[in-house]
Amino acid sequence: MPQADPAVNRTRHSTMASSSSSKILALAGALAGAAQMAEAGVPTVAMPVFMGYGYERRVATNIVLPYATIEATYDSGSSDFFLFENNSTMNWGCPYLSCQGQCNATVPADISYNPALSLTKTNVTAVDTIYGYGGGLSKMYLSDKRLTDTLTFGNTFGDTVTVPDVDFALAQYLQQRIRDTGSCSPVPTYSRAILGVAAYVHDPTGEAANTQGPSLRETLFQSGRIKARTQSLWLDKPRPGVLSGAQDLTGVGLLGGIDTSKYTGPLVRIPRTGGAYSVDQYYTYAPNITVNGVGAPLEMQFDYGGRGVNMSECLLDSGAGGEAFNPVDPQAFFNATGLRENPARGSGQGQNLAWPAPCDQIPADQFLEYNFVTAREGETAKVRIPMTLYHRYQDPQDTELGWCTMSILLYGCGMSRTFSAAVFFAADDDNNEMAIAQGGISEPGSPVDPASVVLRIP
């Protein structure tokens, strides 16, 4: 049950709030700390997020426990929140759906939540749940319980926020659809926790797919700690002197409000698409893409290799690893962008492209411009992604050629972690709206500007 005192404590580099701030919060009946409150009384929870450099790194937040730090994917492509319980198992070895593999590995204790070590947990409840993720449900997490606890969230730059009365599930088993030759080595990577921030759905008619939960955003809304089912997400601009893609980026996922100081140009509504099965997720139409904003858009197609790709349902997903495009003419795409396929990886779906030179030779001024369909007539929604931001990890096969790995797939349709690094995103689930603007402009580690926060998309 939510406690009567719903305040949220936020610190920056372990700096305690001033005594005057504590007095103000005390008068408000809040816990001591620096609560994120906007002008006109808009309450928000500012979640510190980051995007690490590496193959499996996504937009994430750290769950900071006395005995463990757990990197949780901050996932705009799902709604549920769960962690691994201690002594959980990860299974792999069979590539088919719901097929038991021959390989097992214990999830390490230092990325697991141990209920026995928490003095603040409550409401431990037996609930069996299956959470499915990845293309073709390639990852299935099994959970048998839910509980409530106070959790501290942080990023890699020292920002933290402590949130009481958080509901979450504990998973004990993960099955991955990964073929194995019999050696059970190496152990595949996997998400250590998933904090879904997509829309919460509860449709009593059963026509829409309901959220299984728990949902952090819905917990905050139902307890009155935020006043609207709105959110915004941005990452700060890269630090100078380091290749922009090859560094950790910091940012904020703001729950309950929209910080209008964290983007440049207009914040433009784009339509939400998708059917009843995906009403919780942020789908929209495929954008037109140009190189450096000039020339004709690179033409995209609706079918690739005999498999349908619905270009009216492109997911904005901070938990995805790479941008997904579906060009009619791949060679024309290569010619326009300068990107290539590494012959060692092969071609087709699932294979990231590469820049055919070292990463430091990617032109700093080259970008891809996305031009989206807008929800309102007469508006324009254009955003630019610097080409250097597509480099999020380095494949040894590219290193052998002196090339630079780029997180771009020529199959499907979706915007990923790279999109989140350059684009400000806002959603108002109460009104079924979402909007984008050019992001990546705030200074690294800069906090929310309370005077610039609004409750709804302006």
From TrEMBL:
Domain of life according to the entry: Eukaryota
Peptidase A1 domain segment(s): 57-437
Pfam family, any one: Asp
Stored Gene3D superfamilies: Acid Proteases (2.40.70.10)
InterPro entries: PEPTIDASE_A1, Peptidase_aspartic_dom_sf
Protein name per its UniProtKB record: Aspartic peptidase domain-containing protein
Natural source organism: Microdochium bolleyi
